[in-house]
From TrEMBL:
It comes from the Bacteria. This is InaA protein. InterPro entries: Kinase-like_dom_sf, Put_LipoPS_kinase_InaA.
């Protein structure tokens, strides 16, 4: 459930206090505020909130909205990303852990805030391909990527911006883990095939250092999972 409780964007006092705390917390800009979707969006890396705790990423947006047939007048983009993160958790798709999300109106303009935990030990797929890896490790990463995307698409959910830079991997020996980031364009599709077509076409064009042989191996893994029990649970 999102923290916005009315069309006017008023927040309960205790959520308002938390919003203020996160909004003004010092951190390092890892994505300088830029103009998108008629508003401004940027990402800060915040320090850990306690010993042994992970660092945090704070996505701060002002006037940054999306429109849909459900929200023709516009809705803060962070709320769509929050919904996507929660949906992915239900589908067993690894994503950053959600810490806080809320949106409010300030002087007639939406402000949105999304705070998530850092994926410790992970690097983007593009960065990973720039390094060295064994053939076994590459196969493990591609197999796990196929599993994660099958779970996502099995729930008729489309990532919407499936680039190599939004796929993060962590490899320990021959064991691989894959997580998805930047889900602000994610949405549920009526037909699973539309989500599959959109995401795989994007990844094919924006897979960065992945060679064609690895792409074909990934596709083989992905399509071999079709119809299995773990995938069909969420199918249409």
């Amino acid at each position: 459930m999102s923290a916005v409780i009315s069309a006017q964007g008023r927040l309960p006092s205790f959520i308002q206090a938390r919003f203020e705390r996160w909004w003004y917390m010092d951190g390092e800009w890892v994505e300088e505020p830029n103009q998108r979707r008629g508003g401004q969006s940027g990402v800060k890396l915040l320090p850990a909130q306690g010993r042994g705790q992970p660092r945090l990423y704070s996505k701060r947006q002002a006037g940054h909205i999306y429109r849909s047939w459900l929200h023709p007048l516009g809705r803060p983009t962070v709320l769509r990303e929050e919904e996507a993160l929660r949906a992915c958790e239900q589908l067993l798709v690894p994503v950053p852990k959600l810490v806080f999300c809320a949106a409010r109106r300030e002087q007639g303009r939406w402000q949105g805030l999304l705070v998530t935990e850092e994926l410790s030990g992970y690097v983007s797929l593009g960065q990973w391909y720039a390094g060295t890896a064994t053939a076994t490790q590459r196969r493990a990463v591609l197999q796990q990527l196929a599993v994660v995307l099958r779970r996502l698409h099995g729930g008729r959910r489309q990532h919407g911006c499936l680039y190599a830079k939004h796929i993060y991997v962590r490899v320990n020996g021959d064991h691989a883990e894959v997580a998805l980031l930047d889900l602000e364009k994610s949405r549920r599709r009526l037909l699973r095939s539309r989500a599959v077509r959109h995401d795989l076409d994007q990844l094919r064009r924006r897979r960065e250092g992945m060679p064609e042989s690895d792409w074909q191996y990934f596709l083989g893994c992905y399509h071999s999972l079709q119809g299995r029990t773990g995938d069909s649970r969420h199918a249409a």
